[in-house]
Amino acid sequence: MSEPRIHDDVEEVLLTHEQITARVAELGAQLATDYADRNPVLVSVLKGSIIFLADLVRAMDVPLAIDLMEVSSYGAATESSGQVRILKDLSGSIEGRHVIVVEDIIDTGLTLNYLLRYLEDRGPASIQVCCLLDKPARRLASIEIDYRGFTIPDRFVIGYGLDYDERYRNLPYIGVLRPSVYTPAAE
Ligand code: IMP
């Protein structure tokens, strides 16, 4: 049986589904211990983080709520202006609540830096950051990451929610995208 075509664009598997599952279970257990009596609100940013969020909350056996935001960066991705437009705001109040921001990947950190300031202004009791992937090589804004799944090298990754041009989010693992997909002359 031939493999589905999305796998053909993967140069290398960086993290297997088994590795991700094991690490997400550890993060969930740690968060459940730390937030046992705090009824946290997990705030995620669409769309990349939803797969991580869905697995993470099922590894947390404590009362919690979920809220979702959608943001878009102004201008080209290379501009790194840090200016972010809110496309979808929180649906509930976070005033006085313990917030855990759940992110798929932190790259320059500019998006999250903006988001954290935005959320701070809404009067939460506390805010902590949980990210699956930390790509520190290109960091421009200093971000304190409280819960980190994996630190990865400076490569463009796809799968487990992460996309290139809206594709590959449904890969069950994290892979490195074959450069020929975005620069056809590269191979
Ligand atoms: P930052 O503001 O540069 O930290 O942007 C983070 C966002 O950029 C993530 O939420 C992803 O949507 C996207 N991103 C950064 N690196 C990658 C990658 O390697 N693959 C897919 N998306 C990425």
Report on the architecture of this protein:
- It is a single chain.
- This protein has 187 residues and is of the alpha/beta class.
- It has a single domain, classed as 3-Layer(aba) Sandwich (Rossmann fold).
- It has helices at residues 17-34, 50-58, 110-120, 179-182; strands at 10-15, 41-46, 65-73, 84-88, 98-106, 126-134, 147-151, 157-158, 174-177.
- α1 crosses α2 (50-58).
- The longest helix has 18 residues, at 17-34.
- Bound molecules: inosinic acid.
- Residues 48, 104-112, 135, 156-157, 162 line the site of inosinic acid (IMP).
- The site of inosinic acid has 14 residues, from β5 and α3.
What keyword list fits this structure?
187 residues, Rossmann fold, three-stranded antiparallel beta sheet, 29% strand
Summarize the structure.
22% of the residues lie in helices and 29% in strands.
CATH class call: Alpha Beta
Summing up helix and strand content along with how strands pair, one would put the structural category as: alpha/beta
Percent strand: 25-35%
Residue share in helix: 10-25%
**Count of all domains:** 1
Low-confidence stretches: none
Give me the CATH fold name: Rossmann fold
Biggest sheet strand order reads: 4-3-2-5-6-7
Total helical elements: 4
